[in-house]
Write the C-alpha cells for this entry.
Amino acid sequence: MRQRLLFFILILIVCISGFSQGMLLPLISIILETDGVSSTINGLHATGLYIGVLLASPLMEAPLRKYGYKPLIIIGGMTVILSIISFTVWDHLLFWFILRLLIGIGDHALHFATQTWITSSSPENVRGRNISLYGLFFGIGFAAGPLMIHLYHINENLPFIITTVISLLALLTVFLLKNEYPEQDTTDTESYSFASSFERFWKILKYAWAPLLPALCYGMLEASLNSNFPVYGIRSGIDVNIIPTVVSAFAIGGIVFQIPLGILSDRFGRRNMLLFIMLFGTLTFISAGFFEDQPIALISCFFISGMLLGSTFSLSIAYMTDTISKPLLPAGNLMTGISYSIGSIVGPFLGGLVIDLMPEFSFFFFISVVLFIIFICLLMYNKEKAFA
C-alpha cells in the first residue's frame, strides 16, 4: 500500500510538471510573437528553462544523496510555483527569461528526484511499465497544458494563476511521503563527492552515449514544436485557433502509445524500438511538410508522430537503466536530463533560424533531418563493443 501511494504521488507531481511546461512554452511564444519579437529571439528566450536545467545538473547528485528525495522535490516544486505566479507581476522580456531560468532549475530538481526515486524503487519485472507510466503522466499533463492558452483571451493572468493553484495542491501531497535516499556503493566511501560526479558523467558519456540520444531528440522535438511551431504557423497562415490543437495532438499521440511502446521495448529491445520510431517519425514529419495547409491532415500527422516519438524520453531512461549499473543510476539520470536540456536549447534556436533565414523551407523538414541523423547514430552504436 505504501509503495502504491509513493508511486501515485510521484507520477501526479510529474503530471503537473508536464502541465505547467505545456502551458508555458506555447503561451509565452504566442505572447512574444504578438508583441513583435523576432522568431530567433523568441526561440532563444525559450531556452531559458533548459539553460536552468544545465546550470543545476552538476549540482544535483550530492544534495540528493545527502538530503534524500523528498526535500529536493519540495524545493524544486516551490521554485516552479513562485516563478509561474511571478509572470503576472511584470511583463518584461528579461524578467520573463530569468523566470524561465528559475523554472528550469526547479523543474529539473523535481524531475531528477522523482525519476530516480521511481527507477530505483521499482522491481525489475515492472520497471519498464513504471517508467512508461512516468512518461505517460508527464504526457497527459503536457497535452493539457496548451489548452490553457484559450483562457488567456479571457484574462491574460488567468493561465498563470490557475496553473499556480493546481501545482501547489499537487505539491502538498509530497508531505504524505516518508523521505528516502538513493542506493550507494558501500565499497567506496569517497565515491559520491561533488568532484567525482564529473568522473561518472564522463564514463556515461564515453560508454553509454547512445541512450542519451533519444532524450536529446525529445528535448529538441518538444521545445521546437511548442516554441517554434506557433510562430511558424502564424507566419505560414495556419489558423491560430488550431495551433494549440495541433500541439496537443502530438502529446495525445504520445499518451496513447506510451505504455504499448514500453511493453514492446521490453520484448524486442530498447535499441530496436528506438530505431523503428526514429525512422518512421522521420517519414511522418516529411508528410506533415506536404500537408501543412490542410488542418485535418496536419493534426493527423502530429498525432501519428506523437504515437511514435512521444515515448522517446521514457525509452531513453529505460535504455540508460539497462546499460549502466545501479550505483551509476543517479548520474545516468542526470546525464539524460542534461541531454534533454541541450536538445531543448538547440532545438528552438535552430528552429528559429530556419524560420527566419529559410522561410520557404518547411519547419517540418528541419525536424525530419534531425530525426534521421539520430537514427543513423543509434544504428552505429554497439553496446557490447563499447563495454568490451
Observations:
- Residues 2-173+198-386 form a domain with the Growth Hormone; Chain: A; fold (CATH 1.20.1250.20).
